[in-house]
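Something for you to look into today, if you have time. What I am after is a single protein written out in full by you. I want to see for myself how the chain folds. Could you add the entry underneath, on a fresh line?
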Amino acid sequence: MEDMEMGAMDKDQVLGILAEDYMTPEAVELVARAKAMAPRLAERAREAEAAGMVPVETVQEMKEAGLFRVLQPKRFGGYELDPRVFYRVQMALAEGCMSTAWIYGVIGVHNWQLPLFPEQAQQDVWAKDTGVLIASTYMPTGKAEAVEGGYRFSGRWGFSSGVEHCEWIFLGGLLPKKDGSGALEHATFLLPKSDFRVEKNWDVLGLRATGSHDIVVDGCFVPEHRTHRTNDHSDAGCPGRQTNPGWIYKIPFTQVFQRAVSSACIGALDGAIAHFRERAAAHVGKHGAKTAEDVNAQQAVSEAMMTTDQLKLVLFRNYARIVECAKTGERMPVEERLMQRAQASQVPKQCATAASELMRACAASGTYKSNPIERVFRDIHQARGHIANNTDTYARAHGAVMLGMPNADPHI
């Protein structure tokens, strides 16, 4: 903690992060714990990638450090902190291992969504063990048939990151709107581990340790209280607010979730920058050229550092506005929401560009698996494939509205 106060704190204050009142003493401590964990994550990263799974010991360490409790209600033993703390923890973890930070973001954000469900659903999950974790895959492929007291539910979903560490899962489906219009809307269904099976098929370019396997459900019963109309941000659509009245549970779902699948890229790029600087200071190529003297290397590291600096500034500036709206009840204009969504989706694209330049500046010897930057390069490019990081789609959605067209994004 002394080192943080004397060194890193000054740096972060320049970024305008720690200077804000949301960084309470417990928030500072949680970020410090994540930073301290990063070197161990880096040591385990290659083994985790080979195993296709973040180690159980890593998840246990994150649990013991309280990291999964950042967004959890205080009444369930959580910290109920500002989401900006959550993203800072995620970025710190990503400096060591992006796969670990990725599953932290995806799993950890569920401790924010469950409090929006009816109280009975919260008790179903946390009554006996408040440290139970929830996985997800929100793609609306579930088939729900209305039956007495709930739904008969079936389907197959892909990309459930970190599911092997979880006892419950959120699955996406479509349900008729309650207004009688006949239109369908996205719904999140909550199921225990006994109601789904994991089909291990995660063999991809990057984020290999996330174990983002397929999920299959064969006609299980989901009671009504274990469903949540994902994009209904009203009090009626989020009945859990009756017992969780804190302002953080009044933020729209997309504004919390999207940053959970883009912010790890920033921390991973910071980790790659640190590796590159260390490597460049000592590396001499086969032809006798020093990497540190290479003008391409000098430009690549500077541009990468500018990228993470700028992305952090936008992240925290935008979230300050989100928090303001949640606290005051102001509804953010659609143009602003679309702009923020587009900016969040830009993160992996910009990080990928910077990581690509670092890889190029590493030259041929940098492509060996022993170079951690090689893994970061693949991980960030893999993150670009997530639907929430579809940069062009969200930029066009914002641009269309700014040119007088109607908003076509159902999540905004």
